[in-house]
Structures are given as C-alpha cells and as structure tokens.
Amino acid sequence: MDKIRKSEDEWRRELDPETFRITRQHGTERAFTGKYHDSKTPGVYHCVCCGTPLFDAATKYDSGSGWPSFYQPVEDEVIAEVTDQSLGMTRTEVLCAVCDAHLGHVFPDGPQPTGLRYCINSASLDLEEKE
Question: Is 119 tagged catalytic?
Fold first, then answer.
C-alpha cells in the first residue's frame, strides 16, 4: 500500500474541525455520541481521511464502551499499532496504515475468534452501506 502524506494544513483544509482533531491530533469523541456507536447497518467502514477499507460491519459488536467496536480489521495490513502512554497509562493506539489517521485503540478483551476489541472513533470512519 502506498503511504498518503499531506501537511497539517492540507488535512486541516480537507477535514472538518472535529474530524481533524480526532484523526490528525489523536483526539477522541465522548462515549455514546458518535454516529456509528450503535449502528447495525451492513457495510464496510472506511478511513474518513483516505478512504481505505478498515472494518466490515459483520465484525462490529456492542462492547458497551460507547464507541464502535470491532473484533478484527478487513486485513491486518490496513491497521498500524503504536504504543500510547498518554493519560498516565499504556495502551495500543490504532492508526490507518495508509494515512496515519488516529482511529482509536485496541484492547485484549474482545470476543472470539480474535479476543480483540478495536474501539474506534465514529469521526474517523465513513460507512459504505451494503445495498
């Protein structure tokens, strides 16, 4: 996959302020406020910044956390993981591997078959619905 690289100014011009804050400045939305936190619509969730397919709605589940949660990405290669030691704790941050957009975090307390919970900000996603 070819990496997409843009300046902060380019991203700022392309994204609304909230999406920019979350995806480019590693922010988060408040729990239970994102447009996809309780969505059951079939389809594929894409990166809002670059359009890369990230998660199939078939892998989405209600974790009770208030954010869209998935147990696996569409392909391992579309996700990058980095250690996040902000807020006085160690977590694993999830980024889009193509454009480095901050998506959320992954935790080892999800359902089988992976045991993972990708806890993702709605503002970093764009759902392409299945017809």
Answer: yes
Is there a domain that residue 17 lies in? yes
Range of the domain at 93: 8-129
The answer to whether residue 1 is domain-embedded is: no
Q: What pLDDT, on a 0 to 100 scale, did the predictor assign at position 127?
A: 98
Predicted structure pTM score: 0.94
What's the domain count of the chain? 1
Extract the annotated binding site for Zn(2+): 47, 50, 96, 99
Q: What is the pLDDT of residue 44?
A: 98
Q: What span, in angstroms and rounded, lies between the C-alpha atoms of 80 and 93?
A: 8
Active-site residue, from 97, 98, 106, 119:
119
